[in-house]
Amino acid sequence: MNKYYAIFLVLLLTSCDSSRVYEDYEEMEEAFWHMDSVKRFSFEIEDTQTAYNLLATFRNSSRYPFYNIYFQYSLTDSLDSVVVKQLKEADLFDPKTGQPKGSGLGDMFDHSVPILENYKFSKPGTYSLNLQQQMRLDSLPFILSVGARVELVEE
After folding, report:
1. In this predicted model, what pLDDT tens digit does every residue of 15-69 receive, in sequence order?
2. The domain that contains 27 carries what CATH number?
3. What is the pTM of this model?
4. Among residues 24, 27, 58, 18, which one has the least CA distance to residue 155?
5. Which of 12, 29, 79, 101 is most buried, with most CB under 10 Å away?
6. Percent helix / strand / coil, the chain, rounded to 5
7. Strands of 6-138, DSSP E
8. 136: Cβ contacts below 8 Å, ≥ 6 apart
């Protein structure tokens, strides 16, 4: 029941978000993110004059065994050509105190990690943001969902 309440609350809070261009997430089966599981989020860009922020979103349990997460992202265009690719690190817990970062409800915590800030796309079309965990474990435990967000840069 708490899971449905949390999803409802997130949907309610994000429904009034005028800067959001795209947002989606994928629930992890049995709360494991497998290393060979690339999460792909596709979205349309029409305006190449506007600047955007691209973010990866993670939901983890307080039982997640590490303070951080390493992940690789790649942005591909409509021809599936890689536009940008990079390895990123995000702290999910404070490394000194162990206190969870992000916003939380119960033992679940949500994190928005900036990937590309103030980014302008070179041409209109369909783009995909691909996310893959790089933690050297075949199955990364207690990752509940992974997502992507594209938003307008607020001036």
Report:
1. 567 889 999 999 998 999 999 999 999 999 999 999 999 999 999 999 999 999 9
2. 2.60.120.380
3. 0.86
4. 18
5. 101
6. 10, 55, 35
7. 20-27, 32-34, 39-45, 52-61, 68-76, 82-91, 103-105, 108-119, 125-133
8. none
